[in-house]
Backbone:
């Protein structure tokens, strides 16, 4: 039976059918649906961890106990989990461990476009890269077998176009995971599992020897293959890019790499011996190209294709034409005519009714410097709010704010971090601010969910990934428990209340926390009657437009409200200087 | 079996992902190999979104090439115009006569092009442009959020598949309580013809 699945779903399905029974991850585009899908299978335990490092430790622990495990994250999540990846490569495991990690070339929804193939080489962990959903399913099984054969975690790399592409997967409706056997017994092996220097020194040669064996494996595995064709050009590619290249160069000979680390030297030499010229097509870093050059094999690669951004068949074709590798005239393709009509851009924006909007309008008016973080509230940097002055990575806001405070700037300063991001990596810097006698005000933009990635549960929601009711961590009690004395809770869309609390905190000399709590407008779907604008009173001054709320539209003589989009939050009522906007109480 | 490449363009939250799933599953029912590509996450917060759907004997890339789209399905006027470079002189664009002004326009800092300008732009590649009042028709069927399904109805007249196949796929993919409404919206688009 054929079924359409995304790469994320297919990997989860393949892992489930291979007997994985424990999964852990942290949401992050484009990898979120791996764990969401895995959680839907019967008889498995799947959890959202507060961050990727915790998720990886949980997966490693499950594998130590003798149960196959799946861990998922986006590319930058592996930065957070890297410490655990490196020790797990040294210790090895007791059952298969698959780390599914999704890169985001082109940065559709990320702060960078790091190429995580480098982690495979850096940590000495083998890495596979599927090029469509059927392969994602199959590679899950292969990765788990490899993990057990070679006693190492195995990384399966996705990119946006393999994670969020759907393609046909062979599904056997009768297929079930292997019966739950007794776990392979856990043995206390101090020399293998306790990474103190003396033991770690004995494990490092094991790691290097293992990579040698994996290199041998790479020579024979069907994951890598030479696809014979016209030998004028030999194309080297993997993953989504392989599929693009197959379309642009339908006749060429290919070296298709399903295993991207370590690489098979003999096969590469065999390939190099049969083709006249080699073209390495890879998104982001010259990862293959450098290894070919180290073998003394001349190739074209980054001299033809960009090192930045996402690839597509169009981009590959254009670059190849420019380099004279393909003829200029390709049927069906023509350059775009110049458009003399400007098409207005449409960047993402905060939703109508979003509590972050109220918070940012007040922060902007207060003239404070705002150290932001990763989440929907990063959109507070966009016009017309322009109220956020820094966003680096998950959890960076609070530590950077404390550092700026200690470094000394004349401006008043706050850190803004979401609830899920606080649980992810905000607690340590919060403790640090208190411990090191800082005085920063931290605002927790608490909308009660992980909104940007699609409303996943976290330790503050009261439910697990598998929708079981659980402990709901009380933010206020937790923060008071750390030792903060100055903690206030407020709906940031009640601007007067929020402003009063903010001014009080900014005047204070102690480190403090404001919990700006308002449920995510997209999730709560709470609606009140939209406000009305009195055209007689409206001066069309544009003050309400500066809050950047989509339903407010500037007309010829006055502003109007698109009632279909409006949630009736009443924020615009509060900012109108001429009392032209009014709202019924309900 | 001739390949058919589709590009669906709209604003995050307009239902392009559901529509692309319906289109993909219909292709599968009709015996094509199918691939799709879309983006999630930040792009969905009211920003421009596009989905690629490809039918063919054997499909490699999930992404449509520039100049190679057979059909552009524009859920919103300016979003249709944004993907102009994917069209060629045989392309057909189905465009929803519906505006969601981008924030810069509502702020009065950018101009929303006129219907005529958008049509001229889309026709500058030589293809055909078919206007559909999909929002109004979806509203009549019960909810303007089904505009994408209305557009698929109009498109379905040109790309094969009897109405039973499309209605079956809608039933498979839409939550049970919305099935009837969506099927009604689809048929409204289909019965209005390809325009």
Residues:
């Amino acid at each position: 039976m054929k079924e359409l699945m995304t790469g994320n779903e297919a990997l989860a399905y393949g892992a489930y059918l291979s007997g994985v029974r424990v999964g852990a991850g942290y949401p992050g585009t484009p990898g979120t649906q791996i764990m969401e899908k895995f959680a839907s299978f019967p008889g498995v335990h799947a959890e959202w961890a507060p961050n990727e490092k915790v998720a990886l430790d949980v997966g490693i622990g499950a594998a130590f106990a003798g149960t196959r495990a799946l861990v998922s994250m986006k590319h930058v999540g592996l930065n957070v989990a890297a410490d655990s990846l490196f020790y797990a490569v040294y210790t090895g495991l007791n059952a298969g461990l698959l780390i599914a990690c999704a890169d985001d070339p082109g940065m559709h929804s990320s702060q960078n476009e790091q190429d995580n193939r480098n982690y495979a080489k850096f940590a000495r962990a083998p890495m596979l890269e599927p090029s469509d959903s059927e392969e994602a399913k199959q590679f899950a099984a292969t990765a788990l077998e490899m993990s057990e054969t070679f006693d190492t975690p195995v990384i399966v790399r996705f990119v946006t176009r393999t994670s969020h592409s759907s393609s046909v997967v062979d599904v056997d409706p009768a297929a079930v995971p292997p019966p739950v056997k007794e776990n392979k017994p856990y043995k206390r092996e101090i020399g293998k599992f306790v990474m103190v220097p003396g033991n770690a020194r004995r494990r490092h040669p094991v790691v290097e020897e293992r990579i040698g064996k994996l290199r041998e494996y790479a020579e024979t595995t069907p994951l890598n293959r030479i696809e014979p064709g016209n030998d004028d050009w030999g194309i080297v590619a993997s993953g989504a890019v392989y599929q693009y290249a197959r379309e642009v160069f339908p006749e060429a000979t290919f070296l298709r790499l399903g295993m991207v680390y370590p690489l098979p030297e003999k096969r590469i030499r065999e390939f190099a011996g049969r083709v006249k010229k080699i073209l390495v097509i890879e998104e982001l870093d010259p990862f293959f190209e450098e290894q070919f050059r180290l073998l003394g094999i001349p190739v074209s690669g980054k001299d033809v294709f960009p090192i930045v951004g996402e690839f597509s068949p169009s981009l590959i074709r254009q670059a190849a034409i420019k380099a004279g590798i393909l003829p200029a005239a390709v049927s069906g393709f023509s350059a775009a005519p110049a458009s003399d009509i400007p098409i207005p851009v449409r960047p993402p924006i905060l939703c109508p009714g979003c509590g972050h909007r109220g918070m940012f309008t007040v922060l902007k008016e207060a003239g404070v410097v705002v150290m932001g973080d990763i989440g929907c509230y990063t959109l507070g940097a966009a016009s017309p709010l322009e109220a956020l002055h820094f966003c680096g990575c998950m959890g960076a806001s609070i530590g950077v704010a404390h550092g700026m405070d200690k470094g000394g700037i004349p401006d008043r300063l706050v850190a803004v971090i979401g609830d899920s991001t606080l649980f992810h990596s905000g607690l340590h810097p919060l403790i640090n601010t208190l411990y090191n006698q800082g005085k920063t005000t931290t605002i927790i933009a608490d909308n009660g969910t992980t909104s940007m990635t699609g409303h996943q549960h976290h330790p503050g929601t009261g439910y697990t990934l598998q929708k079981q009711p659980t402990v709901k961590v009380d933010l206020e009690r937790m923060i008071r428990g750390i030792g903060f004395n100055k903690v206030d809770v407020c709906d940031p869309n009640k601007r007067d209340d929020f402003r009063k609390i903010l001014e009080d905190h900014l005047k204070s000399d102690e480190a403090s926390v404001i919990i700006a709590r308002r449920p995510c407008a997209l999730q709560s779907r709470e609606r009140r009657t939209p406000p009305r604008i009195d055209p007689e009173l409206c001066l069309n001054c544009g003050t309400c437009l500066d809050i950047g709320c989509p339903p407010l539209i500037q007309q010829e003589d006055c502003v109007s409200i698109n009632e279909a989009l409006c949630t009736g939050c009443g924020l615009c009522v509060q900012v109108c200087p001429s009392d032209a906007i009014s709202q019924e109480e309900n | 079996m001739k390949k058919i490449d589709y590009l669906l363009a709209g604003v995050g939250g307009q239902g392009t992902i559901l529509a692309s799933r319906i289109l993909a599953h219909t292709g599968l029912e009709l015996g094509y190999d199918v691939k799709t590509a879309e983006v999630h996450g930040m792009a969905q917060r009211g920003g421009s979104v596009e989905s690629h759907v490809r039918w063919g004997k054997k499909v490699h890339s999930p992404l449509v090439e520039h100049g190679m789209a057979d059909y552009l399905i524009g859920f919103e006027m300016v979003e249709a115009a944004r993907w102009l470079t994917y069209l060629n002189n045989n392309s057909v664009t189905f465009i929803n006569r519906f505006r969601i002004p981008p924030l810069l326009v509502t702020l009065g800092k950018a101009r929303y092009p006129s219907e005529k300008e958008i049509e001229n732009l889309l026709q500058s590649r030589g293809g055909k442009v078919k206007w559909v009042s999909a929002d109004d028709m979806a509203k009549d069927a019960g909810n303007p959020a089904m505009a994408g399904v209305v557009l698929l109805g109009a498109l379905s007249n040109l790309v094969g598949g009897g109405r039973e196949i499309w209605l079956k796929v809608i039933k498979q993919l839409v939550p049970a309580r919305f099935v009837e409404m969506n099927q009604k919206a689809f048929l409204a688009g289909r019965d209005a013809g390809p325009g």
